[in-house]
From TrEMBL, chain A:
<dbReference type="InterPro" id="IPR008995">
    <property type="entry name" value="Mo/tungstate-bd_C_term_dom"/>
</dbReference>
<dbReference type="InterPro" id="IPR027417">
    <property type="entry name" value="P-loop_NTPase"/>
</dbReference>
<protein>
    <submittedName>
        <fullName>ABC transporter ATP-binding protein</fullName>
    </submittedName>
</protein>
<dbReference type="InterPro" id="IPR003593">
    <property type="entry name" value="AAA+_ATPase"/>
</dbReference>
<keyword id="KW-0547">Nucleotide-binding</keyword>
<keyword id="KW-0813">Transport</keyword>
<dbReference type="Pfam" id="PF00005">
    <property type="entry name" value="ABC_tran"/>
</dbReference>
Automatic annotation (TrEMBL), chain B:
<feature type="transmembrane region" description="Helical">
    <location>
        <begin position="413"/>
        <end position="434"/>
    </location>
</feature>
<feature type="transmembrane region" description="Helical">
    <location>
        <begin position="122"/>
        <end position="144"/>
    </location>
</feature>
<feature type="transmembrane region" description="Helical">
    <location>
        <begin position="548"/>
        <end position="569"/>
    </location>
</feature>
<feature type="transmembrane region" description="Helical">
    <location>
        <begin position="89"/>
        <end position="110"/>
    </location>
</feature>
<feature type="domain" description="ABC transmembrane type-1">
    <location>
        <begin position="377"/>
        <end position="566"/>
    </location>
</feature>
<feature type="transmembrane region" description="Helical">
    <location>
        <begin position="28"/>
        <end position="47"/>
    </location>
</feature>
<feature type="transmembrane region" description="Helical">
    <location>
        <begin position="319"/>
        <end position="342"/>
    </location>
</feature>
TrEMBL record, chain C:
<dbReference type="InterPro" id="IPR006059">
    <property type="entry name" value="SBP"/>
</dbReference>
<keyword id="KW-0574">Periplasm</keyword>
<protein>
    <submittedName>
        <fullName>Extracellular solute-binding protein</fullName>
    </submittedName>
</protein>
<keyword id="KW-0732">Signal</keyword>
<keyword id="KW-0813">Transport</keyword>
<feature type="signal peptide">
    <location>
        <begin position="1"/>
        <end position="29"/>
    </location>
</feature>
<dbReference type="Pfam" id="PF13416">
    <property type="entry name" value="SBP_bac_8"/>
</dbReference>
Length: 363, 584, 364
């Protein structure tokens, strides 16, 4: 096979909105997915991520906004003419067709010659590690195998964009991790753009080049997993991705090194706080960022004093629970380093310029 | 599944052998009376008909048995009988095709509507379904009659008089009207079970709506289509009442011919014809089970409307317009006869005419004050209640036995035998049971009719109860045992209470089956008081009196009230459940 | 002459039945002295005419009987005698009185030993015209099968003979026939129309009759019950045909339909009241027969509405004893001079074959 040109599959959704049964399912969302990129829409259930995916697929019609694939407006193009692949959460394999026939389905519609068709089916079965199962019916396969058939079927006709709607949701944990990696590998090999919907942040981190976090029908923030984790724009993104400790503070000034914020009687320099001009903020410090010590190490700012209330050994890390002037927080420490005892009064500090600030009002 | 298996206490009991043998004993104690019942009222009647069909003159002499296959040779050697057989087959095929052609778009159209609208349309199909066929046929004869509205309209529009009643066309219309609800309900259940995502998946792969309809949607309905078509074909093949009432002498079918031959004591040929119907039925049944994998009798479970999804919203397309038009035709065919009885019931004239002259409610008063109708109403009620009670008892016992059986093969055998009376041709059962009950001196007795009705009603009750018993958690039962409840007590307070809605449903379906039944009741009742549908049937044969449309109106009203109340109760329960779920 | 043959045949019925019948008859005979007061309970009546006929019986003859004796009569309508035969053969008979639609049905039943003898010590059979009763039953409700027409449809020339049914030009419109040849006079009418003399009708040339009927087969509307026959006229399904005279009278007198009839070439035949062998309350049934025969006033009241006298012919009654308007419809006296008595012996012998041939013809 010849590799599809990587310039195929740029998806732009601008101001897409949809109301359903009187409530807003999607509130004028905009994303731009680069060709060949693995893009994840991450959010809790009801956040509108599946709605956005289905609008891109043409399975739902937006009431506002436009969708373009490769700079062609497809807002009113029916699904079957969009040249996409779609993997459903329940796979939606055709129960009356064998694995090979399922994979062949889109090729037949495109009137691919039978020898080319057979070759492509074999190639897909190979790619999805389903060799030898071509004659089976979906009901005779395990969940993981069905998932790979769904993926292979969506990829067979070399779509410009592969859309995946929680494809691992129905599987158990161990299988999910394996198949997640598999999906990424297959997407890379097929050189197709992928838009992936999930509520599972681990999946999003493993798979994504970039991701968009959604909430209540809105896109909260778009970026690489690292950007979103290190520099969340708002309280929701900060708390939804991973665990964090929130210290309320007031912005004092913005310098070239970062934004200075007052927490209690300490001044802490955090990442530049640009997206909002709110002065009442939370300083978000991840448990692994929190330094627990008697004195403030160099290159760090003191946050607050605290008392150790609990300490647990969890294998990869030592989790310490702390009470700091009415704030419950936790820190992940190196289990091989010094660990404070329960009841010990210590100082919490964070590396200068590393903590993130998010506005306190969440709206 | 594994969890409930693990809690079934029999294998872990301290004295497993003793318990197992006691359970086995209990199982046989339940099974034996049912077995005896089926042998006497299902196997023996069919055997009697078989023996008659193989005996000269149709009279089997046990003392000096003589066998001949002359009757069967005549079935295929006699031009006139071949004509009747061909006509019957043609009627069954035509009505199956027309019914399917109407039922498919109707079921499809309804399945694509929003839940509220769909529920309403389903009601319009369920109400005629539950109204006795005799009542509906009474309306049809009035509509098709030479001075009925169709003919009046035709004459007024200048097309001249039409010949509708006592013609092949009339029989076909009546048969289709009878079969439509069965097919719609079977297809609708199949359609709402199809995963919308399959259609969406086909679209994402580039399939046009037509392509995905034929290559993806239709194959999912294969089982429903075959099961439904088989069901209505079998019903159409052996249906007696429609051709008997709507057909002329040249529209005789096998069932009508059988009745005619019984009237002139030609038991031999009548029995052979009955056996022919039975064989045809069994062949069709086996064929469909082979092709479709299974067979589910229609109209048993309750049908719930399912709203259309946001991804596949209702959209007008040329195909949808055609479906809508055919849906209107279907609903008209089903609903108009049911409504037509009302204007007929209020005319002042001593003969029933349309349009009615004058207005009076006297006929309704007469229904409740003359023994002509009070007797039949009482008779139908008593027979219906008796049938329902007996059917539920059999259904519970049989479901209990089959739910305890682990072997799927045995389950299939018992299930298949239990359902056999439903697909056995009604006219065959009628003559067979008539024969047997004559020998048992049960003909003409209320008990005799209750037993006969139970033969066809119990399978439906069993189907409902066994389905819900299979779905119930046996762990609950085991839990009750661990709390010290006896087995009997547990069965009634835990198991039966748990499936109470379906027990009530089983009672209702058995009652309605008996309440509406004509053919068995026609053959088996000799007393002066007949059941309601038979009384109406007699009047349809010998001439309508003005109280007939009044009774018909009352019966329709009763069904409407029951169906509407049930619908309202169901939706309240559903809403309450949804509210609870939301709170949680 | 035919009647004699029929009676001979009945007399020749199995001796066993005669013994049973005699033994069971002896008891009521002894009660004769004490009168009807001893009887009680109910008479379940296996009725094959039903409808208005029974309603009128209930208003006149049966009512009078109940008033005098306290014994009630309950109607059990069945469209044919089939169920009676099936039950009687199985030895389970709930009825005390049976109405056989034809004399030959009754003869068959007598022959098969299914009937009880009429107890002549109670029932005054001597009051009846000879040939209208037998050992096993009394003939009732003589019905005439007459040429009838809608008088408004043919304002000028009126039909006068069966051949007019085949004259589609002078008398256009659909023809109504009963789909049972025996009770419908169908084959006889065809043969008469084809020129067969009235006294040469039997044995019927069924092939010839059906060939004649083929000429108008497409113009025939078949009726299947008495009520339906006049409905067919009233709703315009036919304008001319063969009807039962009593139904024609009902159409005219009750529904005001302009029905006209002629007795010329009409057929007439009798039904039979019998008591089943081993019937419950047989004694009351014997008393009922006696009561009905003696209740001349009741007979006139009944026939004034339903012109099929019960019993068929009483020696003491002439047509002039009945109300004027009903006289033309009574199958008695001068009315039936141009009519033919249906040969029940012929049908007793040949009914199965005739029915089969006719059903095949009509069903094709």
């Amino acid at each position: 096979m010849t590799a599809a040109p990587t310039s195929r599959g740029r998806v732009v959704a601008s101001g897409v909105g949809l109301d359903y049964d009187g409530s807003t399912a999607l509130d004028d969302a905009s994303i731009e997915v680069h060709a060949g990129e693995f893009f994840t829409l991450l959010g809790p259930s009801g956040s509108g991520k599946t709605t956005l995916l289905r609008i891109i697929a043409g399975l739902l019609d937006p009431q506002r906004g436009r969708v373009a694939i490769d700079d062609v407006d497809v807002t009113h193009t029916p699904t079957q003419k969009r040249d996409i692949g779609f993997v459903f959460q329940n796979y939606a394999l055709f129960p009356h067709l064998t694995v090979a026939e399922n994979v062949e389905f889109g090729l037949k519609i495109r009137k691919v010659r039978s020898d080319a068709r057979a070759a492509r089916v074999a190639e897909i079965l190979e790619l999805t590690a389903l060799g030898g199962l071509g004659d089976r019916y979906p009901a005779q396969l395990s969940g993981g195998q069905q998932q790979r058939v769904a993926l292979g079927r969506a990829l067979a006709q070399r779509p410009r964009v592969l859309l995946l709607d929680e494809p691992l949701g129905a599987l158990d944990r161990a299988l999910r991790e394996d198949l997640g990696a598999e999906i990424r590998r297959i997407q890379q090999e097929a050189q197709t753009t992928a838009i992936y919907v999930t509520h599972d942040q681990d999946e999003a981190f493993i798979l994504s080049d970039r991701m968009g976090v959604m909430r209540d029908g809105r896109i909260q923030q778009i970026g690489t997993p690292e950007e979103l984790y290190r520099a969340p724009n708002d309280l929701f993104v900060a708390t939804f991705l991973g665990k964090t400790n929130l210290f309320p503070g007031e912005v004092v000034e913005t310098t070239s090194a970062g934004t200075v914020v007052r927490i209690g009687d300490s001044l802490v320099t955090a990442r530049p706080h640009a997206t909002s001009d709110a002065t009442s903020v939370y300083c978000s410090v991840r448990p692994e960022q929190l330094v627990v010590s008697d004195t403030v190490p160099t290159g760090h700012h003191k946050l607050i004093s605290a008392v150790v209330t609990d300490s647990r050994f969890l294998g990869q890390r030592q989790t310490v629970r702390l009470a700091a002037e009415g704030i419950q927080c936790s820190a992940d420490l190196d289990p091989y380093g010094p660990v404070p005892a329960v009841g010990e009064r210590i100082t919490l500090s964070v590396r200068i310029g590393e903590s993130a600030l998010v506005p306190r009002e969440t709206a | 599944m594994t969890a409930t298996d693990a809690t079934t206490p029999i294998p872990v009991s301290s004295a497993p052998v003793l318990h197992r043998s006691r359970a086995l004993l209990a199982r046989w104690a339940l099974l034996l009376p049912i077995l005896a019942f089926y042998v006497i009222f299902f196997v023996w009647p069919i055997l009697t008909v078989v023996l008659r069909s193989l005996s000269p003159d149709g009279k089997f002499d046990a003392a000096a048995p003589q066998f001949t296959i002359d009757n069967f040779l005549q079935l295929f050697g006699d031009d006139f009988l071949l004509l009747i057989e061909g006509r019957t087959l043609l009627l069954a095929i035509n009505s199956t095709l027309i019914t399917t052609a109407l039922a498919f778009p109707t079921a499809y159209f309804i399945s694509r509507l929003k839940r509220r609208t769909a529920s309403l349309l389903l009601l319009l199909i369920l109400v005629p379904f539950w109204v006795s066929i005799v009542v509906r046929l009474f309306a049809v004869t009035s509509i098709l009659s030479p001075n009925g509205p169709l003919n009046q309209a035709s004459i007024a529009l200048g097309f001249g008089p039409l010949e509708l009643l006592y013609t092949q066309g009339g029989v076909l219309v009546g048969t289709v009207m009878y079969l439509l609800p069965y097919m719609i309900l079977v297809l609708y259940a199949g359609m709402v079970a199809v995963d919308d995502n399959l259609i969406l998946a086909a679209r994402t792969m580039g399939a046009s709506p037509a392509y995905s309809f034929f290559r993806v949607y239709l194959p999912q309905l294969r089982g429903s289509l075959f099961s439904g078509a088989l069901l209505i074909f079998i019903l159409g093949l052996s249906f007696f009442v429609v051709p008997a009432l709507l057909g002329g002498p040249r529209d005789q079918t096998i069932a009508v011919y059988i009745q005619q031959q019984i009237d002139i004591f030609q038991w031999g040929i009548a029995s052979a014809m009955g056996i022919l119907l039975l064989i045809a039925t069994v062949v069709c049944y086996v064929g469909v089970v082979r092709i479709a994998g299974s067979f589910s009798p229609g109209g048993v479970g309750s049908v719930q409307a399912k709203g259309v999804s946001a991804e596949l919203p209702f959209r007008w397309s040329p195909a949808m317009v055609v479906s809508a038009v055919l849906t209107v035709v279907t609903i008209a065919v089903l609903v108009i006869p049911v409504l037509f009885v009302f204007p007929l019931s209020t005319g002042e004239t001593g003969t029933v005419v349309f349009p009615p002259r004058g207005f009076t409610l006297d006929w309704f008063v007469q229904v409740f004050t003359t023994p002509t109708w009070i007797g039949p109403i009482m008779q139908s009620t008593v027979v219906g209640l008796g049938t329902a009670a007996l059917s539920v008892a059999i259904g519970l016992a049989l479901a209990r036995v089959t739910s305890g059986i682990r072997s799927t093969a045995w389950k299939a055998v018992i299930g298949g035998l239990a359902f056999a009376p439903i697909i056995a041709p009604g006219i065959l059962l009628a003559i067979g049971i008539f024969d047997v009950e004559l020998q048992l001196k049960l003909t003409g007795t209320v008990i005799g009719l209750i037993l006969a009705h139970t033969v066809i009603a119990a399978p439906l009750s069993y189907a409902l109860i066994s389905a819900s018993m299979a779905g119930a958690d046996r762990g609950v039962e085991a839990a009750a045992w661990t709390l010290g409840a006896s087995r009997t007590r547990t069965f009634w307070t835990v198991v039966v209470r748990g499936i109470l809605p379906s027990v009530l449903g089983a009672f209702a379906i058995a009652f309605v089956t008996s309440w509406d039944e004509v053919v068995l009741a026609l053959f088996l009742q000799t007393g002066p008081t007949k059941t309601l549908p038979v009384t109406i049937y007699k009047y349809l044969e010998s001439g309508i009196v003005p109280t007939v449309p009044a009774v018909a109106s009352l019966l329709v009203t009763l069904v409407v009230v029951i169906v509407v109340v049930r619908g309202v109760v169901n939706s309240i329960i559903a809403r309450r459940r949804a509210a609870l779920r939301e709170e949680a | 002459m035919k009647k004699t043959a029929s009676r001979l045949m009945i007399a020749g019925a199995s001796s066993l039945v005669a013994v049973i019948a005699l033994s069971s008859c002896s008891a009521p005979a002894a009660e004769e002295e004490t009168g009807a007061g001893e009887i009680s309970g109910d008479i379940l009546f296996y009725d094959t005419s039903g409808g208005v006929v029974y309603e009128q019986e209930a208003l006149t003859l049966f009512k009078d009987f109940t008033d005098d004796t306290g014994v009630t009569v309950t109607d059990d309508y069945n469209e044919a005698a089939t169920k009676f035969f099936a039950s009687a053969e199985a030895g389970s008979v709930p009825w005390s009185l049976v109405l056989f639609p034809t004399v030959n049905d009754a003869a068959t039943a007598a022959e098969d030993g299914l009937l009880e003898k009429i107890d002549t010590s109670i029932v005054p059979v001597d009051d009846l015209v000879d040939g209208t009763y037998s050992e096993y039953g009394i003939e009732v409700g003589t019905f005439g099968m007459v040429l009838a027409w809608d008088d408004d449809a043919y304002p000028d020339e009126k039909p006068s003979e069966m051949a007019d049914l085949w004259d589609l030009e002078t008398f256009p419109g659909k023809r109504c026939f009963f789909n049972n040849p025996q009770y419908g006079w169908t084959l006889e009418a065809a043969l008469l129309a084809d020129g067969v003399a009235a006294d040469e009708l039997y044995p019927l040339d069924v092939d010839r009759a059906l060939a004649k009927l083929d000429e108008i087969k497409g113009d025939i509307t078949w009726w299947t019950s008495g009520a339906q026959s006049i409905e067919s006229f009233e709703n315009g399904s036919c304008d001319i045909g063969i009807l039962w005279a009593n139904r024609a009278f009902t159409a005219l007198s009750e529904n005001g339909f302009p029905m006209n009839i002629t007795w010329n070439e009409a057929g007439y035949s009798n039904s039979v009241w019998s008591i089943p062998a081993g019937a419950p309350n047989a004694a009351a049934a014997q008393q009922l027969l006696k009561h009905v025969i003696e209740n001349v006033e009741g007979q006139i009241a009944f026939a004034s509405v339903i012109p099929t006298p019960i019993p068929a012919s009483l020696k003491s009654l002439t047509p002039a004893d009945f109300p004027d308007e009903v006289q033309a419809f009574l199958p008695v006296g001068s009315n039936v001079e141009g009519s033919v008595l249906q040969d029940s012996d012929y049908y007793l012998e040949n009914l199965d074959a005739v029915l089969d041939q006719f059903n095949r013809w009509v069903g094709q």
